[in-house]
Amino acid sequence: MTQPRRRRAATEEKVRRVLDAAEEIMLHEGYAAVTSRNVAERVGLTAPLLHYYFSTIDDLFVAMLRRRSERIVERMAAALTSPRPLRAWWDLASDPRGTALFIEFLAAANHRPALRAEMGRVAREVRRMQMDVLDKILPEYDVDPDEFPPALVAATMQGLGLALVADETAGHETAHEQARAAMSRLVDRIEQRRTRQHGAG
Amino acid sequence: MTQPRRRRAATEEKVRRVLDAAEEIMLHEGYAAVTSRNVAERVGLTAPLLHYYFSTIDDLFVAMLRRRSERIVERMAAALTSPRPLRAWWDLASDPRGTALFIEFLAAANHRPALRAEMGRVAREVRRMQMDVLDKILPEYDVDPDEFPPALVAATMQGLGLALVADETAGHETAHEQARAAMSRLVDRIEQRRTRQHGAG
DNA sequence: GTCTATATTGAGATAGAC
DNA sequence: GTCTATCTCAATATAGAC
After folding, report:
1. CA at B53, C1' at D18: how many angstroms apart?
2. Which residues contact A180 (CB under 8 A, 6 or more apart)?
3. What does pTM read for this prediction?
């Protein structure tokens, strides 16, 4: 019982910094730039030493996704139980950093089975949460669930966030500011309609 | 005037096959798998020989995107002038192959400036076309352009396509079949409303 | 004009030193 | 338990043969 007594602080701190660095690289240079050398250099380590903390690069990617998805699940749960669920959800779905990283993970998972499996688990859990909440609250928003079923609403929220952030971060001139502003107004209007009918709460 | 008289067929045919192979690899193994070796092997060439046809890998990526985007612009123009523009547009936006490739280009452009510039040009041209048409036809669909401006409608079409195809190709269990079916019904309903009011044509 | 032999760099990973 | 010296392989690219 004395082996794991040693202070883990140093190692855990290093792991955290490695994950931070990897995330930064992935965000600004793409997932293909997340290499042993690149990440190690940014944290002041050597490339082989990085393999001490993460045996394979796959392990590193999965660890990155795990840490991110924990936060996402937490924040999505909080958003969905907040007084204005759609508003909070949209803020999350259109968050530039989170969404840009999501696009990278999406592409990286295409040729990394371990990552794809992990992505599947997260996607399923998050979508489940969203649809459970939508089942209950869509009627309160005066939305006909036959015309706009939860699955469609959820996919639209995510997809619109993806499209906007993709254009924004790449700097494409596609009137994304107008689209973002219009969506924001739309969400506010819908929330107001519900608040008026079902009280603030 | 006799230099370019030689038959280009052989070379052009090879270039075409190289682009086909590269596209196939990008689709199934991700953009990072598009390497000289991989592509060359699939076409029965050697890696260095591939550099005879495309000096740099950047050149190859840009050529791939150019060829694809020509088709996209053509098909989108045809869709937007068809009798049921929204329907035709949605068929394009939710096409699995085209959209999956688009996601890869999106991620690849993140760290390839030449590719990013080309992506920007295409995105801008396509969005411009879409918004010009929407300006005219949204009223015919009985859609309030103040609540759903062209920029928002266009981004939503693209985004929903992205989200659906991403889940479909990765095999995520996120009720994407329901979402796709609901969107298809919705588009049909909207088209019918317009046809009834403005005649078939 | 078309293709091959070869250079150079950097990737992921391991055996073994401290 | 932590880190370093080193291996292998694959990537892009070029010089130069045919």
Report:
1. 18
2. A94, A164, A168
3. 0.93
